[in-house]
Amino acid sequence: MNQNQQLFAAAQKHIPGGVNSPVRAFGSVGGTPRFFKKGLGAYAWDVDDQRYIDYVGSWGPLILGHTHPDVLEAVIAAAKNGMSFGAPTAAEVELADLICEMLPSIEQVRLVSSGTEATMSAIRLARGFTGRDKLVKFEGCYHGHADSLLVKAGSGLLTFGNPSSAGVPASVAADTLVLPYNDVAALEALFAEIGEQIAAIIVEPIAGNMNMVQASPEFVQAMRKLTENHGAILIYDEVMTGFRVDLQCTQGLHGVKPDLTCLGKVVGGGMPLAAFGGRSDIMAKLAPLGPVYQAGTLSGNPVAVAAGLATLKIIREDGFFNQLAIQTKKLCDGLIQVAKETNTIFSAQSVGGMFGFYFSKNIPQSFADVMNSDRTRFNAFFHGMLNKGIYLAPSAFEAGFVSAAHSDQDILDTLEAARSVFLEIK
Ligand code: PMP
């Protein structure tokens, strides 16, 4: 047994499934998860000293690559001054100001410690603000693991949601309505029927949890118009897309302003930090100003805030996003080209530093489309690439990420690996 295998066996003794978050277990692709010991720039090393070009980047946060010197320096300096106070600090004011400056739809923001907390709190706030209970989400979108969000659609448009995890009360799931992504007609029908009962729509405006699926412009417009017309709140879950697809997240790309936005991943620069914010009249309902309770011992943690601030300052530099988008597109265009040359049925797309690739002829528009891609081939591709030192997300339902540290040579090496793996798995 190598070190990874030994550690995975040992991990299972005291950690359920050997992991602290399920997808890490390689459940859908099979095999032994890699245990990492070090990261630098675009690379991560496992405990067997294998180096990988890392396209997971901690599932999105590492937009500057691993251990960026400025981020590291900021984190060390902050930690030396105190790990946590549970009281306000100047740096969190600076981060709040910066977020509001970068994202015009956010007038006020609250810092939390995970994406799950951000979405859970935003939903409670939307319900508290509107005095309504019903929540609309879309099939294939993931918004963290709060009870009301672990819900699958029943069949038919207006059937109430069923829990998709044990431990979620049916009564909680019943208030979550699940519609197909990018289906304007279904959304219009739902609002026509019960629009006045809907507290909020929560959506990933570019979905990254069913591989990568982009909302159509019509879908985005319909969500904005219908929520506005029916007094419901539009919540953008930009935990993944925030400061990843564009400096103004998807809001810069689509030109639509949501009422509330959830941020995570990049905003924390690799540390446990997330945020939710938006219209100040809504945010004013939060405790201590208003009746909606929300709190956190480590919220606005100074070490995490330091990592977030250092990261946001760099991604705001002139040309940063342009270069990141070019680099990510190079990877996708290259993969498409190599697939063509090897007669592989394949498609790929990217926005900013986020990408998706699919073993299907066309780019998916919905969860159903993603389900129709060739997952057996994905699994074979994943393992072939892993063997060649390319670390991709261990699931066909996850987006990928390029960082500013990924060089032209890294992309070329990845394409070279992909060429031989495409041939191997034919
Ligand atoms: N929303 C989205 C869009 C996400 O991608 C994630 C995590 N992948 C979450 C929410 C939950 O964030 P966390 O894992 O930090 O709780």
Automatic annotation (TrEMBL):
The keyword Isomerase applies. Pathway: Porphyrin-containing compound metabolism; protoporphyrin-IX biosynthesis; 5-aminolevulinate from L-glutamyl-tRNA(Glu): step 2/2. Gene3D superfamilies: Aspartate Aminotransferase, domain 1, Type I PLP-dependent aspartate aminotransferase-like (Major domain). This is Glutamate-1-semialdehyde 2,1-aminomutase. Keywords: Cytoplasm, Isomerase, Porphyrin biosynthesis, Pyridoxal phosphate. It is found in: Cytoplasm. Homodimer. One of its GO terms (molecular function) is glutamate-1-semialdehyde 2,1-aminomutase activity. It comes from Iodobacter arcticus. The modification N6-(pyridoxal phosphate)lysine is found at residue 265. CDD domains: OAT_like (cd00610). Its EC number is 5.4.3.8. Belongs to the class-III pyridoxal-phosphate-dependent aminotransferase family. HemL subfamily. HAMAP family: HemL_aminotrans_3. Its cofactor is pyridoxal 5'-phosphate. InterPro entries: 4pyrrol_synth_GluAld_NH2Trfase, Aminotrans_3, Aminotrans_3_PPA_site, PyrdxlP-dep_Trfase, PyrdxlP-dep_Trfase_major, PyrdxlP-dep_Trfase_small. It catalyses: (S)-4-amino-5-oxopentanoate = 5-aminolevulinate.
